[in-house]
Amino acid sequence: MQTTDILIIGAGAAGLMAAYRLSASGRKVIVLEARNHTGGRIHTISHESFFKHAELGAEFIHGNLPVTLNLLKEANIKYSAAGGEMVRYDKGRFIDHEGFIENWELLLQKLNELEQDIDIATFLQKHFPGEKYIGLRDGVSKFVAGYDTADPKKASSFALRNEWNNEDADAQHRLDNGYCSMINYLADKCKEHEGNVYLNSVVTQIDWKPGDVKVITDSVEIYSAEKIIIAMPLGVLQANRGEKGAVVFHPAIKEQINAINDLGFGAIIKFLLEFKDAFWENNGTKMLAGKSLKDMAFLISDENISTWWTQYPKHSTLLTGWLGGPRAAEKKGDTTEELLQQALQSLSNIFKLSVDELKAKLIASSIMNWTAEPFTRGSYSYDTVAAPEARTILDAGVDNTLFFAGEYLYDGPAMGTVEAALTSGQNVAKRILNNQVF
Ligand SMILES: Cc1cc2nc3c(=O)[nH]c(=O)nc-3n(C[C@H](O)[C@H](O)[C@H](O)COP(=O)(O)OP(=O)(O)OC[C@H]3O[C@@H](n4cnc5c(N)ncnc54)[C@H](O)[C@@H]3O)c2cc1C
């Protein structure tokens, strides 16, 4: 049995940020990670001749996000603006993205007038009924499913208005050498301060009493500590007993598990397809008004695999596909081969190249169905109407012994992001350092 001050379960952004802060303050930490690599939903892949710093998970810094940007500055990690044009492909033709969601201003106005939180689907039915607003209802529902990867029937109107009122569309960035450079920095810092990160350590059981925790892994390793930070994804915490990755608490923590189940966790499939050439730039496909697609960053379509983006402004032959929300959840059981076929069919419909032509151009593909991944079981969290109360319960921890960290605990406009995870990791470390007598 190994003993330490603080055990941390999960080496994602939240767990590693907490580990860095605590170890830098002289606490002994052990991080236990189920996978054979750190990062969790940050997963950069590279190959000699394709997929140069390609992101299977998080890719963008969505705006001017203080915790992320300060950390990158401290680590001297470079990042570059994403930018580019957003285009739309609808009913067989390319159109300008303007008017992307009709009556957007009116939607925000009505949302800002809302006094009591309700789910966004009910909000739309109530405030934008009838034929006149079909376009608005459909556009918003698709946006909530696509971007927030959420179920509109559960997603909180208050949380979405907070997100939409704070949108900073021009300030997207990518890390030059991939998000993994930030994860590597955190893990290295933790080790520098004598912290340990153990991979391939699937935690299955947490036995605890105040000030005393014992953790058991699937290879029956036992670790003990005075405190534990549970930094696993919400999807894993919501998993049923016996499912891979799921953890049993002794004694049970009913109130906290109920709070966990009150939060929303979305679904996502991300497709990385590397081609011999950037056919979207030069196959003569034209947007409305004869504009070319050379500067295309994002493409939103009504196809099965609906959203695609390029690496603009960097010239690259990589196309990234994205399917989120309830439609992604339905595809949880699809094989990689089936998903690839669906992706190529969608691209074939949009760019008028046959699937065989696309296959001949395809150099490599990597498809991550995050909902089917046992150690994630979804995309990222979204707020339900019950979320603020649930977060209060989880933020309080249990008996100054069990603490929670993860993107789902963040309360602010950057919900579901790396910023959310880093902030939560930082906050839990502060809470432990401020309260405790070791
Ligand atoms: C496809 C996709 C795209 C995204 N794009 C962006 C983006 O562009 N920008 C952005 O800011 N955010 C993005 N996000 C969200 C962002 O990646 C997450 O919010 C953030 O990385 C979550 O960090 P975390 O530490 O809370 O959880 P995680 O990164 O999920 O870390 C939790 C860790 O716990 C481990 N674990 C699980 N079960 C066990 C167990 N039983 N025992 C031990 N370890 C366990 C997991 O393996 C994992 O490493 C994206 C997410 C996905 C899935």
What is the CA-based Rg, rounded?
A: 22 Å
How would you describe the shape? Answer: globular
Helix content, binned percent: 25-40%
Strand order, sheet with most strands: 9-8-19-20-21-18-22
Q: What count of helical segments does DSSP give?
A: 15
What summary fits the major beta sheet? 7 strands, mixed
Class per helix and strand makeup: alpha/beta
For the secondary structure, the number of strands is 24
Level-2 CATH architecture of the largest domain: Alpha-Beta Complex
Overview of the molecule:
The protein has 438 residues and is an alpha/beta fold. It has helices spanning 13-24, 66-75, 104-113, 120-127, 134-146, 157-165, 180-192, 234-237, 254-262, 279-282, 326-330, 336-351, 355-361, 387-395, 418-435; strands at residues 2-3, 6-9, 29-32, 44-45, 54-55, 60-62, 79-81, 85-90, 93-96, 172-175, 196-198, 203-209, 212-217, 222-225, 227-230, 248-250, 264-265, 268-275, 296-301, 307-309, 318-324, 362-369, 381-382, 402-404. It is built from 15 helices and 24 strands. The longest helix has 18 residues, at 418-435. The mean pLDDT is 93. It binds flavin-adenine dinucleotide (FAD). Residues 9-15, 32-35, 40-42, 57-60, 62, 202-203, 231-233, 236, 245, 247, 268, 270, 370, 375-376, 379-380, 406-407, 416-421 line the site of flavin-adenine dinucleotide (FAD).
How is this fold's topology laid out?
Elements: E1 2-3, E2 6-9, H1 13-24, E3 29-32, E4 44-45, E5 54-55, E6 60-62, H2 66-75, E7 79-81, E8 85-90, E9 93-96, H3 104-113, H4 120-127, H5 134-146, H6 157-165, E10 172-175, H7 180-192, E11 196-198, E12 203-209, E13 212-217, E14 222-225, E15 227-230, H8 234-237, E16 248-250, H9 254-262, E17 264-265, E18 268-275, H10 279-282, E19 296-301, E20 307-309, E21 318-324, H11 326-330, H12 336-351, H13 355-361, E22 362-369, E23 381-382, H14 387-395, E24 402-404, H15 418-435
Helix pairs in contact: 1-7, 1-15, 9-14
Bound molecules: flavin-adenine dinucleotide.
Flavin-adenine dinucleotide binds at residues 9-15, 32-35, 40-42, 57-60, 62, 202-203, 231-233, 236, 245, 247, 268, 270, 370, 375-376, 379-380, 406-407, 416-421.
